[in-house]
Design a protein that fits this description.
The complex is a heterotrimer of chains A (310), B (357) and C (361). Chain A has 310 residues and is an all-alpha fold. The relative contact order of chain A is 0.21. Chain A has one domain: ABC transporter involved in vitamin B12 uptake, BtuC. In chain A, 70% of the residues lie in helices and 0% in strands. Chain B is of the alpha/beta class. In chain B, the strands form 3 sheets. A 6-stranded parallel beta sheet of chain B has the order 2-1-3-4-5-11, with helices on both faces. In chain B, strands 7-6-8-9-10-12 form a 6-stranded mixed beta sheet, sandwiched between helices. Chain B has a two-stranded antiparallel sheet with strand order 13-14. Chain B is globular. Classes of the chains: A mainly alpha (310), B alpha/beta (357), C mainly alpha (361). At the A-C interface, helix 4, helix 10 and helix 13 of A face helix 6, helix 11 and helix 13 of C.
């Protein structure tokens, strides 16, 4: 039992990769929720993205095409949800859950015949010179492109929400859809676009699992990652940068748990496996106990049905 | 009380139908799977066995299956449904189906049942299981020979006898050829979560393990090993040939086909009898996948051990062996009895770390 | 083009017609799917919707509808109360697990003593376990304003790990040869939730589900608390003026849904399932959320929705077993049914009108 055997640098490097799928899905869901829509179908869109990306990458031999395809498929699937909730005015919670069920079935149907196949490899982006810097190099600069893409995406979402007009409109739609409508914004159209963005991100996250992290296709392989992504959004109190923090914290606890076991620390494993969830609850409590700040960030129209009466 | 009468008559009718189906020329064989046939591992291998039955008997059999059956009430219904629809022989392929199988077997005395990995039997209910630990002895030998860091990582699903037995068998074999070997064991607490298996493999690699053994089904650890380079792994349940010749250097394959064919034949001949089968390499139920990517002498040694086990001249648990706490377990030359093996809940001497309780 | 015009009142007629419409639409879409997979669409649809009710072996499947539907209905009734008031308990699956663990633990603690007192004690323990597990998000919400959707969801995962540790440790069957899982309560008469009438599938859980439907109906229509729940959901501000005490309502709604979910778990573990095992939970808690919405959060609607979903489960199994349809196809089929049911709800709240040129100002 030697705690010093755990190299914090390696730990950090592997948790960055391990957290990427939920990070991608969560940043997408954040945009969806900012527009005032709660889509609980993240798991279904992730798993559909996982198989679509996998199949396309295997058939075409190009992982990049696979990721692109995964994003498109995720967005297409989310259109179902968008249609139900935005045009047919169905309840969002139920529609999201139905979407998850549908996505799980669809993915395993598509996936028949893709088991036991190795996907084309995605190569790490070894940026010359800086990736050789001791300590920081391996942590920060020796990952696959998707890790950087996910971080860039968070930055982009943050900038978009904070500085751009599009971000302002998105937030106003999420805050008060009636007022936004009165100002002449196309509430439904904006929300549909946000939902599609969320679907694309979830699809990408799923494809990261099937093409890079595992990499393999097996039915039900997301194993609950979509639900974690949902939790992260609230955990982050709808702030993009906090999504990264949450994703890494969550991934970090899971990885640390496995590492502690690997060095032979005698821990009650069953209870430690609960730790990520318990810690999430604790952090949620800490964040939400500061009521003013939460209410500033939570989209006021979240989950409410909007129908323009004229 | 008319409804109850109707129901009783219905059950009588159903049982009668079951009997009638026996007389028909086609033998109907049912399979209940715990996972999807596309899991590429445990259930996939059982389904390969089913396909082998179809191929072997042609149109003399009809097979039906139901996949992803949850344990408990759902399993009982799925099994009953097969029996009602005239199955002559039903294989229930997961430990969790034990009590449901027992319950249904009671209701359908004319239908034969076979339950995998359980311990409850009846006149029309037999059990079967494979001695996977024999395979662990073979790959443990390769692992002990091949490790340079003397650290072997082991990913276990849950601390249950089946998994513990495998760890002990592999450890004993590895220590025999390499006294400096140590095992780092990580419990994933899931049967199925490829991403977690990948993370567990990475954690073990970071601790310096250069051999990964796994008792979970996905190829995620092999992929992680391939990326790390210079690490070897072993296929689990299926051959995982796509990672040949390295990192996957061999595999333990569940081969149910010979057993399924034999039992279906027995039902056809009317010679089927309830019994308890626990077969290993010798009977072909446990198969060692082609050994690749290791030096010839290691390959020869491993194959030698495989053949000795098959011939019955070597028992993976042969004394002198102590339990982890140092208390004697087996005297020199003594071999473990099946009862102890089935309920194994201790590590053998030399394994570090505590078994989770 | 079309446009939607809100109906002044939800149409009773359409509420009755729309589910049938959705089922027919699903049959068509599902038939196409099955044909695409190379199976006879008419046989598949017949196996799913007809055979469980009127096929050769309906005497066996009809009671199974109750066995499968009861936990869904019981849980969904509890959830619907909260959902009506805008309190989102997504973690019924966790409360179901904890109810089962507590109920089974009490039963097993008395093993092998036989007494008629044991089963009622187990019921109490199951209800209490579920309630307490739901009280965690409830109290956190009342005290700190923490989002109950996420806390209850996170607690599902905690409960699952606890379940695994219980089946491997504390509650493991000492005579089970070291295998995970508890003793089977079927072999323990005092703790066994047997069928009340042989061959009918009616166990105490089914009875509880029916009672819950009736009580919920009475509560929502005849009781002050039911009025407060409905008011809070429709007009939270007005509710405050009407003297609703939000914290009390949160505690009541989450507590009740937790209690019913816990009861469902307890009846399941002591009856149809029989034992605590690692994979004891099969998603009833999540499916019940869908049932609650399909039933339009109305007790009678939930009763029907639960039975309909049970029908597709059991019929789906029959279709799988007879035609070797992949399980995934059935899952997809159920997904479609839900989509159609959700989509057609539109017709009961809105009229679809052809757009006419309106004189705009």
């Amino acid at each position: 039992m030697d705690l010093s055997a755990i190299d914090p640098m390696l730990l950090l490097a592997s948790l960055m990769a391990a957290s990427t799928p939920v990070l991608l899905a969560a940043i997408g869901e954040l945009v969806v929720e900012k527009s005032g829509v709660l889509n609980l179908g993240v798991e279904g869109m992730m798993i559909t993205g996982a198989i679509c990306g996998f199949a396309i990458a295997v058939e075409s031999g190009s992982p990049m095409l696979g990721f692109l395809g995964a994003a498109v498929c995720g967005a297409l699937l989310s259109m179902l949800f968008a249609w139900l909730t935005q045009y047919a005015l169905a309840n969002q919670v139920a529609s999201g859950l139905a979407l998850t069920m549908f996505g799980l079935g669809l993915s395993s149907l598509i996936g028949q015949g893709y088991q036991g196949i190795k996907p084309p490899a995605t190569h790490d982006l070894n940026i010359p010179l800086i990736s050789d810097i001791p300590v920081i190099g391996p942590i920060l600069f020796q990952h696959d492109p998707l890790v950087y893409f996910s971080i860039a995406l968070v930055a982009a979402v943050w900038a978009m929400l904070k500085f751009s007009r599009a971000g302002l409109i998105l937030r106003s739609v999420g805050e008060n859809h009636s007022a936004a409508h009165a100002l002449g914004y196309k509430v439904v159209r904006i929300r549909v676009l946000a939902i599609m963005f969320g679907g694309a991100c979830a699809g990408l996250g799923g494809a990261y699992l099937s093409l890079i992290q595992v990499p393999q296709w097996t039915e039900g392989m997301t194993a609950g990652a979509g639900w974690i992504a949902l939790a992260l959004v609230v955990f982050a109190s709808w702030k993009p940068w906090r999504v990264i923090l949450g994703a890494y914290l969550f991934g970090g606890i899971s990885i640390l748990q496995l590492n502690l076991q690997a060095v032979g620390v005698n821990i009650p494993v069953a209870y430690l496996a609960m730790a990520p969830y318990v810690v999430t609850i604790v952090v949620l409590v800490i964040i939400s106990s500061d009521r003013k700040r939460v209410s500033l960030n939570a989209p006021a129209s979240l989950g409410r049905v909007f129908h323009a009466s004229h | 009380m008319r409804p109850i009468k109707t129901i009783a008559a219905g059950i009588a009718l159903a049982v009668g139908l079951g009997g009638a189906a026996l007389a028909a020329d086609k033998t109907k064989v049912g399979f209940i799977y715990v996972g999807p046939i596309g899991d590429g591992g445990y259930t996939y291998q059982h389904d390969q066995g089913r396909l082998a039955v179809e191929k072997h008997f042609g149109d003399k059999v009809e097979t039906v299956y139901q996949e992803s059956v949850p344990e408990g009430a759902d399993a009982e219904r799925a099994i009953t449904q097969m029996a009602l629809n005239g199955a002559d022989l039903i294989f229930t392929t997961s430990f969790g189906f034990m009590d449901p199988t027992v319950a249904v077997a009671k209701k359908f005395p004319n239908v034969k049942f076979e339950h995998a990995t359980g311990f409850k039997r009846a006149d029309n209910l037999g059990t079967y299981s494979a001695r996977f630990y024999e395979g662990r002895t073979v790959i443990g030998t390769i692992a002990g020979r091949m490790t340079k860091t003397n650290k072997i990582g082991y990913i276990g699903a849950y601390p249950i006898p089946e998994v513990i037995r495998g760890i002990n068998a592999a450890f004993i074999a590895a220590r025999k050829v390499n006294p400096d070997v140590e095992f780092n064991i990580v419990w994933a607490y899931t049967w199925f979560d490829p991403a977690k298996e990948a993370d567990a493999a990475k954690a073990l690699l970071e601790q310096g393990a250069d051999v990964i053994l796994q008792h979970t089904d996905s190829t995620a650890p092999s992929a992680a090993a391939e990326k790390a380079g210079n690490v070897i792994t072993f296929g689990q349940a299926s051959d995982m040939a796509e990672y040949k010749p390295r990192p996957r250097v061999s595999s333990i394959i569940d081969n149910w086909a010979p057993y399924y064919i034999e039992r279906v034949q027995a039902v056809m001949d009317g010679t089927w009898k309830s019994d308890d089968t626990w077969s290993g390499i010798g009977a072909g139920m446990v198969e060692i996948g082609e050994i690749t990517g290791v030096p010839d002498d290691v390959k020869k040694e491993a194959e030698g051990i495989r053949d000795q086990i098959a011939a019955g001249t070597l028992h993976p648990f042969t004394g002198p062996l102590n339990k982890q706490d140092g208390t004697p377990w087996l005297a020199a030359g003594e071999t473990a009895d099946d009862g102890t093996l089935l309920g194994m809940n201790f590590y053998v001497e030399g394994i570090k770390g505590e078994l989770p309780k | 083009m079309f446009h939607l015009e809100p109906r002044p009142q939800t149409s009773k007629l359409w509420i009755a017609i729309t589910p049938l419409l959705a089922v027919v639409a699903t049959m068509i879409a599902g038939g196409i799917l099955f044909a695409f997979l190379g199976k006879d669409p008419f046989v598949s649809i017949r196996l799913i919707f007809w055979d469980p009710l009127f096929g050769d072996f309906a005497f066996y499947y009809r009671p199974q509808l109750l066995v499968k539907g009861a936990p869904l209905i019981l849980i969904a009734i509890g959830l619907s109360l909260g959902f009506r008031a805008g309190i989102w308990n997504i973690g019924a699956e966790g409360q179901y697990i904890i109810g089962a663990i507590c109920g089974a633990a009490v039963g097993l603690a008395f093993y092998p003593m036989e007494s008629w007192l044991i089963f009622p004690l187990m019921i109490l323990a199951g209800a209490l376990g579920g309630t307490l597990w739901a009280m965690i998000p409830a109290i956190l919400k009342v005290r700190y304003g923490t989002n109950e959707i996420l806390v209850s969801l996170m607690l599902v995962y905690v409960a699952e790990k606890l379940l695994a540790s219980m089946s491997l440790g504390l509650l493991k069957n000492p005579e089970g040869h070291g295998f995970p899982g508890s003793r089977n309560l079927r072999d323990y008469a005092s703790a066994f939730n047997d069928e009340l009438f042989a061959g009918t599938g009616m166990h105490w859980g089914v009875a509880a589900a029916f009672i819950a439907v009736i009580l919920a109906y009475v509560l929502l229509n005849r009781h002050m608390l039911g009025f407060q729940i409905r008011l809070t959901g429709q007009a939270p501000r007005a509710a405050r003026f009407a003297g609703v005490n939000p914290p009390r309502l949160i505690l009541f709604c989450l507590g009740t849904s937790g209690m019913l979910a816990g009861l469902a778990g307890m009846f399941e573990v002591s009856g149809p399932s029989g034992q605590i095992s690692i994979d004891f939970n099969t998603g009833y808690g999540f499916t019940a959320i869908i049932v609650a919405f399909l039933g339009r959060l109305h007790p009678v609607g939930i009763l029907l929705a639960g039975l309909l979903l049970a029908l597709t489960y059991i019929g789906g199994e029959i279709a799988q077993g007879q035609l070797n349809l992949p399980a995934a196809a059935i899952q997809l089929f159920q997904g479609m049914l839900l989509f159609f049911l959700l989509a057609v709800d539109l017709l009961s709240n809105f009229r679809i009108r052809l757009n006419q040129r309106k004189e705009s100002i």
